[in-house]
DNA sequence: GCAAATGCTTAAAGCCTGTAAGAAAGCGAG
DNA sequence: CTCGCTTTCTTACAGGCTTTAAGCATTTGC
């Protein structure tokens, strides 16, 4: 029974990697245990249950995504900031589809206050500093930006754009131009 | 062993209803069988397997959604059409969260050509008739619209907008205004 | 009315989650 | 160093879900 050096952190990391490989939905406690050369029951010393594991992966993904977005945003403003943020978001989702799916989990109640949620909102709001938007338009714009990014990435990774020859990259770029346009001409409430 | 009158259509319908009640992910062959007062194995005479069932629900949802969208679009043009289409989309998702989740399934390969996918694309393109958009901007705009609708609805139902007092309806309305603005001022390629 | 097709049941294998009880490994004193 | 406490892992097991196979029952149609 040599110990395998399992910790909650390593489990989370491994689960995230596994999610990127085989899909978040297919990450199971059993598969994870197999990867550590350990019986499934052993993992329950480190995680509460399967949902707990998924929430940890979600929080990991949110934190990583926030880090990337923050790095992309540093030193930029206006459309530059918008494009850098959006690309960081999309690139992360493409590199880490499993993690990205995890980040989409509903994790109301408990965990979200753990920094990640707030960071995302603040960063999206930071993008808008380059545009002159007053409340409540600012909140509306934050929601629209988030929706467009998430919607695009989500449809693209689900294969929604593969039935038309137009490159997904080109439409993405056009969409960002369009968002910039609308932020500069935000309609009055 | 009185027969329960199970058919693939009834199963699909019941599965869709069940999805709206308990969530698409929680719809299982067993639960469905229970609802029909039948053993799980009995359902395999009508459906190939669990995935087949989910695909059928997805196609049902896509067809229903397309019907609603078509009805909303009839006789309208320009911003009127945009708003009606968008609201039909969002309302359907809110009324039928399970079906809507099903519609988001990846169903590449096989089933999509079954009309629904094409209908959606054509309708979104119909909205753009009221705006003067040439290819490839038209395709880009279709993708942006779809992304924004899906992203907004998806984030809203996942509870993403509940942490801020601004009403989700108000931001939705503002987002539609913004989309109308950007379609009328589509940036040059 | 009888045979073939169809719908349902039982049985069983395989995989997953999660709990409980116990063995083994590591750790911190004394 | 060694005794005992804590932690980690194992086995065992209960309960669910999926799916296949074999068989009985009910319909259907000739």
UniProtKB/TrEMBL annotation, chains A, B:
UniProt DNA-binding region: 28-47
Gene3D superfamilies registered for this protein in UniProt: Homeodomain-like (1.10.10.60), Tetracycline Repressor, domain 2 (1.10.357.10)
Source organism (scientific name): Sphaerisporangium flaviroseum
Pfam entry (one): TetR_C_33
Record-given protein name: TetR/AcrR family transcriptional regulator
Key words of the record: DNA-binding, Transcription, Transcription regulation
InterPro entries membership: Homeodomain-like_sf, HTH_TetR, MT1864/Rv1816-like_C, Tet_transcr_reg_TetR-rel_C_sf
PROSITE patterns: HTH_TETR_2
């Amino acid at each position: 029974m040599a110990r395998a050096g399992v910790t909650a952190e390593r489990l989370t990391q491994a689960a995230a990697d596994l999610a990127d490989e085989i899909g978040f939905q297919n990450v199971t406690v059993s598969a994870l245990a197999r990867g550590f050369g350990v019986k499934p029951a052993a993992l329950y010393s480190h995680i509460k249950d399967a949902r707990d594991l998924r929430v940890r992966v979600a929080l990991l993904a949110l934190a990583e995504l926030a880090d990337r977005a923050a790095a992309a945003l540093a030193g930029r403003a206006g459309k530059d900031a918008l494009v850098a943020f959006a690309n960081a978001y999309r690139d992360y989702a493409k590199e880490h589809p499993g993690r990205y799916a995890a980040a989409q989990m509903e994790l109301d109640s408990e965990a979200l206050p753990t920094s990640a949620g707030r960071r995302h909102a603040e960063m999206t709001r930071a993008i808008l500093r380059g545009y002159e938007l007053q409340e409540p338009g600012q909140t509306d714009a934050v929601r629209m930006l988030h929706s467009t990014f998430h919607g695009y990435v989500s449809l693209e990774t689900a294969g929604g754009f593969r039935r038309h020859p137009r490159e997904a990259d080109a439409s993405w770029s056009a969409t960002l131009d369009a968002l910039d346009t609308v932020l500069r001409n935000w309609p009055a409430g």
